[in-house]
Amino acid sequence: KGEGHVEGEKVENPDTGLYYDEYLRQVIDVLETDKHFREKLQTADIEEIKSGKLSRELDLVSHHVRTRLDELKRQELARLRMLIKAKMDSVQDTGIDHQALLKQFEHLNHQNPDTFEPKDLDMLIKAVSVKYK
């Protein structure tokens, strides 16, 4: 009580319950390393975030941040592919609900597997927004 937040101190956030919670946290952590994006995030209201206006700011982040986001996306796609393969292996002779499997990709643009683009950030925000309506 009475103690303020110390600069650089990690604040533990509660689990969102999303199956891509770790990916979401990592994207946010990387984006917050960019001073310009962090300032925009802190001043944006919820409607600016949900509308995709904030996602357009991704074009202004540093090359290092974009490179790290690209790597996070590739890791997340590999994780999802592994999960889908395991699920398909476990239900080989039973019917596979392909729509349910594809829903696991709603938080990122799987048609562009190599780079993290504004559309990826927009899709991630929208996926979270739907969960918490």
Automatic annotation (TrEMBL):
UniProt keyword terms in alphabetical order: Cytoplasm, Golgi apparatus, Membrane, Phosphoprotein, Repeat, Secreted, Signal
Subcellular location: Cytoplasm; Golgi apparatus; Membrane; Secreted
Gene Ontology CC entries for this record: endoplasmic reticulum-Golgi intermediate compartment; extracellular exosome; Golgi apparatus; membrane
NUCB1-like N-terminal domain boundaries: 7-128
A molecular-function term among this protein's GO annotations: calcium ion binding
InterPro entries per UniProt: NUCB1_N, Nucleobindin
Record carries keyword rRNA-binding: no
Protein name in the entry: NUCB2 protein
